[in-house]
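Weekly sync notes, structure subgroup
Attendees: PM, AL, DS (notes)

Item 1: joint prediction request from the bench team. They want all two components modeled as one assembly rather than separately. Inputs as received:
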Amino acid sequence: DAKTTQPTSMDCAEGRAANLPCNHSTISGNEYVYWYRQIHSQGPQYIIHGLKNNETNEMASLIITEDRKSSTLILPHATLRDTAVYYCIGLRNYGGSQGNLIFGKGTKLSVKP
Amino acid sequence: ETGVTQSPTHLIKTRGQQVTLRCSSQSGHNTVSWYQQALGQGPQFIFQYYREEENGRGNFPPRFSGLQFPNYSSELNVNALELDDSALYLCAGGTAEKLFFGSGTQLSVL
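Output from the run, pasted for the record:
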């Protein structure tokens, strides 16, 4: 699975968009980009995933560059409850192989009033 | 609400003892995975179970073992506890696309 690189920390003003970058230059053609987040004292929470196309759901948008070497997670209107560590993970999506996620240190996002 | 519950929430053990952590998942979660998270680090994959058999393991010694039961519950067993085993232990139920994590068991080894 691809190695990912993320900034250690970021700040965002409440109500503004939070844009979290991730580099995955070694990603292979069959690896998806997954995002999870972990709010303090809780287990990680799935946010979104994608392969080539941009994706959007009720939580966030995922923008993947055409060469797939990097991506950006966008929280359109950040709230204080979005303060968390955000993990970008490269993963081959075979049925039943979802268990072995390789978490790095992630990006600590602080949303400030 | 993830549909994954873990017990107990906190546990204190002594070095050399054995511990069993429990997890209950929900119908539709066809895999169960366990992770160890040390303070300030990301979760580390321990192993995964599918249809009650281990089908993937991270870099953990054999004293870490597990069971998965037909009713979507599972256990993590750790023998001969060491001080470095102190961590948050997370269980996750999985579908083909995503994992649903419980809130974890905080284990302290003294």
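Discussion: Chain A touches chain B at residues 34, 36, 41-46, 49, 85, 87, 93, 95-106 (CB under 8 Å).
Action: AL to compare against the crosslinking data before next sync.
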